[in-house]
Automatic annotation (TrEMBL), chain A:
GO terms for biological process: methylation. Coiled coil: none annotated. It comes from Methylocaldum marinum. Residues 1-272 form the CheR-type methyltransferase domain. This is CheR-type MCP methyltransferase. Keywords: Methyltransferase, Transferase. The keyword Methyltransferase applies. Pfam families: CheR (PF01739), CheR_N (PF03705).
UniProtKB/TrEMBL annotation, chain B:
GO terms for cellular component: cytoplasm. Keywords: Chemotaxis, Hydrolase. Its EC number is 3.1.1.61. Pfam families: CheB_methylest. One of its GO terms (molecular function) is protein-glutamate methylesterase activity. InterPro entries: CheB_C, Sig_transdc_resp-reg_Me-estase. It comes from Methylocaldum marinum. GO terms for biological process: chemotaxis. This is protein-glutamate methylesterase. SUPFAM superfamilies: Methylesterase CheB, C-terminal domain (SSF52738).
Length: 272, 207
C-alpha cells in the first residue's frame, strides 16, 4: 500500500469532520486512525473513504456513531494496579498538605478511572476536599461516566485489581447490584464535574494539583501530544503531578524538561 | 534463491504466534549474527491483565536485549521488541511504535493482524511477515495484507508447528507465502539481512 490515495482521502475526511462538526482528529496517530476508519467503512457499508465522507456530511445520524467509533470507549477500574498503589503511597502524602485539591482526569471515557480515583481519595480522607474535573470529547462516554453504572460481570476483575492496588475495603462496599448492573454510590461523584473538553482544541480551565491522562495520548501524533502535554504543564501548579498510562512517556515530548520522573515505572511525573 | 526474494533490505520483520510459538521463536531467532540490523517486532498471544515475562524469557534464551516498546518509541535497528499484554502494537509512519487499547481483534489483544496490517500500511513492501504456531486464525489476514503490499510472507510449516491451525489458516489465504520449518525461515532471514551488508546498516543509521 504506502497508499497515497487513501492517505489523501483520510486527510480530506478528517478536514471535513473538523469543518462541519468541530471535532479535530487531524493529528491523531495515523496507524490507529486508519484502522478505525476501515472499521467505520465496514460499519456504514462504504466501499471508499470518499463514500464515508459523503455519508458523514449528508446523513445527520451518521456522525454520532462515527464519533463513538473514532474515540475508543474502553476503560477499566484500577487498570494497572501498581499505578494506583504508587498514587496512594507516594503522591497522596503530598496531596494531604493542600487544604483543598483540584484534580483533572483528562479523557475519562466511561468513568471507570475517575471512580477508581474517587474511591482511593475517599479511603485516604481526601475526597471531601477535592474537586475533580473529568473530561472527554465523547458525549456518550460522559453520559455513562455520570451514571456510574457498569456491568455486574466486570466486578470480579475490578475487585481483583482494586485489591492489588492496595484497596482498604471491599469494592462491593461502593456499589449496589441490581438487574445485572453495579450502580456505584453517588456520594463518590458528588465532587466530580463531568464535562466536554478536547485536548486538541480547548484551553486550560483551572489550576490543578494532579492530572491523570491514561491511554489517551497513544491515539495522538507527536504534535498533538505536545499540545496536550503543554496544557497539562500550564494547568499544573508547581510540583503538581501528572500520571500517564503504563506505556506512555514524556521522553519524546517537547515539554519533557518541564517535568521530572517521580515514580518512573508507574509513569508519574512531577512538574518542576 | 527463490525469485520472490525482496530486492531491498527489509525495514522490519514482524512475527506472530500463539500456542507453541515460544519454541518456534527460540529456533527462529537463535544466534542471530551481530550485524543483523533489521528490527524484529513480535506479537505472541498471552493472558490479558497480567504483566508478561515474555521479554525477559526471550532475552535470556536469545542472549540479547528484548523490550516492550513505549508509545512513539522509534523502531531501532538490531532490536527485538514484543507487544505488551493488553495493548495492540502498531508500526506507524516514520518507523515509530503506536499502541492502542482498542477492543480485541480475533479475541486477541494484542492482535497479530493489527501489527501486520499497520506494518504493511506504513512500510509497504518493506515489511516481512512471519506466522508461527498457534491454535487460532489471528495473523492470517494480516499476512495477506503484507503480501499484497509487496512484502514477503513466511509461514511455519504445519508439520513443524506444535499447533498447526494458525499456519494452516495463513496458507489458505496467502498464495505466495513460503511455507518452511522455523529453522529454514531463520536461514532465509540471515541471508536476507546479510545481503544488505554495509549499505543496509548505513540506511538505518542515516534515518
Ligand atoms: C482508551 S480511552 C481511555 C480511558 C481512560 N483514561 C482509561 O485509561 O481507562 C480514550 C479516551 O480518550 C478520549 N479522547 C480522544 N480524543 C480526545 C481529545 N481530543 N480530548 C479529550 N479526550 C479525548 C476518548 O473519547 C476516549 O474516551
Amino acid at each position: 500500500m504506502h497508499d497515497d490515495t487513501s492517505e489523501t482521502e483520510i486527510k480530506l475526511l478528517l478536514e471535513a469532520i473538523y469543518l462541519r462538526f468541530h471535532y479535530d482528529f487531524r493529528h491523531y496517530a495515523p496507524a490507529s486512525m486508519a484502522r478505525r476508519l476501515s472499521l467505520a467503512m465496514r460499519r456504514f457499508g462504504c466501499r471508499s473513504l470518499s463514500g464515508l465522507q459523503e455519508r458523514v456530511l449528508h446523513d445527520a445520524g451518521v456522525f454520532p456513531e462515527l464519533l463513538s467509533l473514532l474515540t475508543i470507549m474502553v476503560s477499566d477500574m484500577f487498570r494497572d494496579p501498581g499505578f494506583y498503589r504508587a498514587l496512594r503511597e507516594k503522591v497522596v502524602p503530598f496531596l494531604q498538605t493542600y487544604p483543598s485539591l483540584k484534580i483533572w482526569v483528562a479523557g475519562c471515557s466511561t468513568g471507570e478511572e475517575v471512580h477508581s480515583l474517587a474511591i482511593l481519595l475517599q479511603e485516604e480522607g481526601l475526597l471531601d476536599r477535592s474537586l475533580i474535573y473529568a473530561t472527554d470529547i465523547n458525549p456518550e462516554a460522559l453520559r455513562k461516566a455520570r451514571a456510574g453504572i457498569y456491568e455486574l460481570d466486570r466486578m470480579a476483575g475490578f475487585s481483583e485489581a482494586y485489591r492489588a492496588a492496595g484497596g482498604r475495603a471491599s469494592l462491593a462496599d461502593y456499589y449496589t447490584a441490581a438487574y445485572g448492573s453495579a450502580v456505584f454510590d453517588k456520594a463518590l461523584r458528588k465532587n466530580i464535574v463531568f464535562s466536554d473538553h478536547s485536548l486538541a482544541t480547548d484551553m486550560v480551565f483551572a489550576e490543578v494539583q494532579l492530572i491523570t491522562c491514561r491511554n489517551v495520548l497513544i491515539y495522538f501524533d507527536r504534535a498533538l501530544q505536545n499540545r496536550a502535554i503543554g496544557l497539562f504543564r500550564d494547568a499544573l501548579c508547581r510540583k503538581g503531578f501528572l500520571g500517564l498510562g503504563a506505556k506512555e512517556t514524556l521522553r519524546f515530548s517537547d515539554h519533557a524538561a518541564a517535568f521530572s520522573e517521580f515514580a518512573r515505572a508507574e509513569r508519574i511525573y512531577q512538574k518542576e | 534463491m527463490a525469485s520472490w526474494l525482496a530486492p531491498v533490505l527489509p525495514e522490519v520483520i514482524v512475527v506472530g504466534g500463539s500456542a507453541g510459538a515460544l519454541d518456534a521463536l527460540s529456533i527462529l531467532l537463535a544466534d542471530l549474527p551481530d550485524d543483523f540490523a533489521v528490527p524484529i517486532v513480535i506479537v505472541v498471544h498471552l493472558p490479558r491483565r497480567k504483566r508478561s515475562a515474555l521479554s525477559e524469557v526471550l532475552a535470556a534464551k536469545l542472549g540479547r536485549p528484548v523490550r516492550e516498546p513505549l508509545d512513539k518509541e522509534p523502531v531501532s535497528a538490531s532490536m527485538i521488541y514484543v507487544a505488551p499484554p493488553d495493548y495492540h502494537l502498531l508500526i506507524d509512519r516514520g518507523m515509530t511504535f503506536a499502541l492502542s487499547v482498542d477492543e480485541p481483534v480475533n479475541f486477541s489483544l494484542p492482535s497479530i493482524d493489527v501489527l501486520f496490517e499497520s506494518a504493511a500500511r506504513s512500510l509497504g513492501g518493506g515489511a516481512i511477515g512471519i506466522l508461527l504456531s498457534g491454535a487460532n486464525a489471528d495473523g492470517a489476514y494480516g499476512l495477506k495484507v503484507i503480501e499484497d503490499a509487496g512484502g514477503l510472507a513466511f509461514v511455519q510449516a504445519p508439520a513443524d508447528a506444535a499447533m498447526p491451525a494458525m499456519p494452516n489458516a495463513a496458507i489458505a489465504l496467502c498464495e505466495r507465502a513460503a511455507v518452511l520449518p522455523a529453522a529454514e525461515i531463520r536461514a532465509y532471514l540471515i541471508r536476507l539481512a546479510g545481503r544488505g551488508g554495509e549499505s543496509g546498516r548505513k540506511r538505518y543509521h542515516d534515518r
